[in-house]
Specification:
OB fold (Dihydrolipoamide Acetyltransferase, E2P); Nucleotidyltransferase, domain 5; Aminopeptidase; alpha+beta; 6-stranded mixed β-sheet; 33% helix; 14 helices; globular; 4 domains
Length: 506
């Protein structure tokens, strides 16, 4: 009861403070977790386990282990269990956040002309290993900081597309241009829109010092890690600097001190937003984050109206199916369908962020006959995705009435981080029925009876199958014994999955 009162009082205090967006940082000896909560609703979860830190942003000195001209790619040994993948297009400098007119014209050449087997090469990870695939690499090295991204070997100054004012773009370029030399150029990040000259000078100096250390380590022999990105709590705070954060709560005293030092050196304006949480209730429990994470691992997402989503994640793509469920509406069927689809767009946008779903995403909205309704649903989806920091692209309704979209994938989804393949169903999500397994047992006994001279058979099976063959299906077992002329004994094995059994010849 005390817990409920504590949570209620805390909720009242948060309302009085009118907190909109906040980061909750939970750190234990084994992992760090960061949750983004906007207006009391969980939007994003980031997890980094100490033994499995993410690789994106890391710079390695690798060795080309294999060149594949047919794929226009090469495999590179960077010291991981699986060789990393380097495509010819990733050897050419490219920057997605810079306008096309500022990129220059680069042409993808033959991979055999770019690298050779056994060659030492400096690469950066752009995608973590996903499933059976190794990490994705690029030779277009970038080092990010608060306001700038350093691009070694470039003489270019680019500006984030999200800075729309031409006057601001010109001002930032004018400030940053003197920092460019033979070592490299810079990209000006969105967070720099209101930055002053001193702040940009400080950022540029910091990035050059980091690059000097990387260059020094590169002279050493062998495959090795040259640069590792910041730990998750610091990295997230750095990357969220451009968003409107009202509060950053940290439940670890050590991490709080590290963030305070980082903020005072690089981000002084967020220092007063940092708060060390040491309450008796775990911070993720207090904000109901734990329950939200558990719900995000399920297929079904309930809508307030009574409708629901079904989200299925496969290796090739993610599919989202919308259903009206218990929602019957108040006017007519077309309005009911339209309102359900409209509500679903906001739920889909949130689930994509929360589950970190990437790649190809197919959305099966409930069929709409009204063209205007389709346009409004698409507009609502685009609006809901506007706050997503990850790049998305919506292709609109296809000829089959499906909405096709993509969301950039750089790290594993929440499901892949927290879950593994089910040993019973091997990832299919389905188990054979008791009846199916029973009949498979019968067929196996008949097959063995024809091939071997046996006195009787002993069957080890799951409890559910055992109970069925001893109960409702016992007459079928009796008929089998008459058919083969031999006794069949059953033994229940509690550790067996429902679809597993063994037949032993006695």
């Amino acid at each position: 009861m005390g817990w409920v009162v504590s949570r209620s009082r805390f909720a009242q205090s948060r309302v009085q403070k009118k907190i909109g967006s906040e980061l909750l940082i939970n750190v234990t000896p084994t992992e760090a977790r960061v949750a983004l909560v906007e207006h009391g609703v969980l939007q994003e979860v980031h997890i980094e386990r100490r033994m499995k830190r993410g690789l994106v942003g890391n710079i390695y000195k690798g060795k080309v282990s294999r060149v594949l001209p047919g794929m226009q790619a090469a495999f590179v040994d960077i010291g991981l269990d699986k060789a990393a993948f380097l495509h010819a297009s990733d050897i050419v400098p490219h920057t997605e956040c810079v306008a096309d007119v500022e990129k220059g014209n680069f042409v993808v050449r033959d991979i055999a002309q770019l690298v050779r087997q056994g060659q030492d090469i400096m690469v950066q990870v752009v995608k973590d290993p996903l499933g059976t695939k190794g990490a994705r690499l690029t030779t277009d090295i970038t080092l990010p900081s608060r306001y700038l991204v350093f691009m070694p070997g470039s003489s270019h100054v680019g500006v984030s597309q999200r800075i729309e004012s031409e006057a601001v773009r010109a001002r930032l370029k004018k400030i940053t241009q003197p920092f460019v030399d033979d070592d490299g150029g810079f990209i000006i990040r969105t967070a720099a829109e209101s930055a002053g000259e001193d702040e940009l000078v400080q950022d540029a100096g910091f990035l050059r010092r980091v690059w000097a250390k990387v260059s020094e380590r590169r002279k050493r022999r062998g495959v090795q890690l040259l640069y590792q990105d910041l730990a998750l709590p610091v990295r997230i705070v750095r990357d969220f600097v451009g968003t409107e954060l009202d509060q950053i709560q940290v439940d670890s005293a050590q991490t709080y001190e590290e963030l305070q030092q980082f903020a005072q050196e690089f981000m002084p304006e967020i220092a007063d937003k940092l708060d060390h949480y040491n309450g008796p209730i775990p911070i993720f429990d207090l904000y109901d984050v734990e329950n939200e994470v558990q719900r995000a691992l399920g297929r079904k997402v309930e809508l307030k109206s009574g409708g629901y989503l079904i989200i299925d994640q496969t290796e090739a793509m993610t599919t989202v199916d919308i259903n009206t469920g218990a929602f019957v509406g108040h006017r007519n069927l077309e309005e009911t369908i339209f309102n359900t689809n409209l509500e679903a767009t906001h739920a889909i946008a949130r689930q994509l962020r929360l589950r970190n779903l990437g790649g190809i995403i197919i959305i099966d909205f409930i069929d709409m006959l009204n063209t205007d309704h389709k346009k409004r649903v698409l507009a609502s989806l685009e609006s809901a995705l506007a706050n997503d920091r990850v790049k998305t692209n919506i292709s609109g309704f296809s000829g089959l009435g499906l909405v096709e979209m993509t969301r950039k994938r750089t790290r594993e989804s929440l499901e892949h981080v927290l879950c593994g393949e089910c040993p019973a169903c091997q990832g299919t999500g389905n188990l054979k029925t008791v009846e199916t397994v029973s009949y498979e047992i019968f067929r196996e006994i008949i097959r063995l009876n024809r091939g071997y001279d046996a006195d009787e058979f002993l069957v080890y099976c799951a409890p559910a199958v055992f109970n069925s063959l001893k109960g409702d299906e016992s007459h079928l077992l009796g008929e089998l014994e008459v058919y083969i002329g031999k006794r069949v004994r059953l033994q229940s094995e509690p550790m067996y999955a429902q679809n597993k059994f063994d037949v032993v010849i006695m």
